[in-house]
Amino acid sequence: DTAVSQTPKYLVTQMGNDKSIKCEQNLGHDTMYWYKQDSKKFLKIMFSYNNKELIINETVPNRFSPKSPDKAHLNLHINSLELGDSAVYFCASSQEGPAYSNQPQHFGDGTRLSIL
Amino acid sequence: DAKTTQPNSMESNEEEPVHLPCNHSTISGTDYIHWYRQLPSQGPEYVIHGLTSNVNNRMASLAIAEDRKSSTLILHRATLRDAAVYYCILIDFGNEKLTFGTGTRLTIIP
């Protein structure tokens, strides 16, 4: 069973469109995250949710809106896509939140978003 | 956030041990040292973490200097599947995010 699964794996769309990426974890974890990895391979956190509550929002444009219907799911909706949004987006989860500093994060395999 | 410094790249022969260094001279007393790796076309994967004492698990060992200003990830017997980018990350007890640097790209030579 895949622990953290993201759909779709690949997403190709045109500038200006609205798209969503879904993430589900079956690990029973309390905290979920979204990271963005750009073309230079830098990985940067975007959001984190703990038990459906937003706890980290890292200077991300308002066009990006995470939604957590329950603690096993954290979806990412992006409005008015721009060329600079092309990247790989990774979802992750951890138990009890990283504030305890000893709980590893488990990552999905990423969604490769390409904007034409 | 306390910073880490890693070599950009390293090479190692298959079936030999690999020592991946990380410097973190500004580490604070509450910073944990975490290592993750990212294989090609995959998400990051947790490897190991520690605070003060050396740590071992099925994947690797973590050797932490006595002053905690540096650490070394040890892969005891490298395989081709260990070729990846390895990230050394400090996580403060009061902070809540992984801050990835540029990591070390490890190449395994058959």
Task: Characterise this structure.
The complex is a heterodimer of chains A (116) and B (110). Chain A is mainly β and 116 residues long. Chain A has no helices and 11 strands. Chain A has strands at residues 4-7, 10-13, 19-25, 31-37, 43-50, 53-57, 64-70, 73-78, 87-94, 106-107, 111-115. In chain A, the strands form 2 sheets. In chain A, strands 2, 4, 5, 6, 9, 10 and 11 form a 7-stranded mixed β-sheet that branches. A 4-stranded antiparallel β-sheet of chain A has the order 1-3-8-7, with no helix packed on it. The mean pLDDT of chain A is 90. Chain B has 110 residues and is an all-beta fold. Chain B contains no helices and 9 strands. Chain B has strands spanning 9-13, 18-23, 31-38, 44-50, 55-56, 61-64, 70-75, 84-92, 104-109. In chain B, strands 1-9-8-3-4 form a 5-stranded mixed β-sheet, with no helix packed on it. The mean pLDDT of chain B is 92. At the A-B interface, strand 5 and strand 10 of A face strand 3, strand 4 and strand 8 of B.
Task: Please summarize what this structure is.
The complex is a heterodimer of chains A (116) and B (110). Chain A is mainly β.
Which features characterize this protein?
heterodimer; A: mainly beta; four-stranded antiparallel beta sheet; globular; B: 110 residues; mainly beta; 0% helix; 48% strand
Total number of strands of chain A: 11
Query: What is the CA–CA distance across the termini of chain A?
Result: 34 Å
Shape of chain B: globular
How is the main sheet of chain A built? 7 strands, mixed
Taking the sheet with the most strands of chain B, its summary is: 5 strands, mixed
User: What is the beta-strand fraction of chain B?
Assistant: over 45%
The whole-angstrom Rg of chain A is 13 Å
| Distance separating the two termini of chain B | 38 Å
Low-confidence stretches of chain B: none
Order of helices and strands of chain A: EEEEEEEEEEE
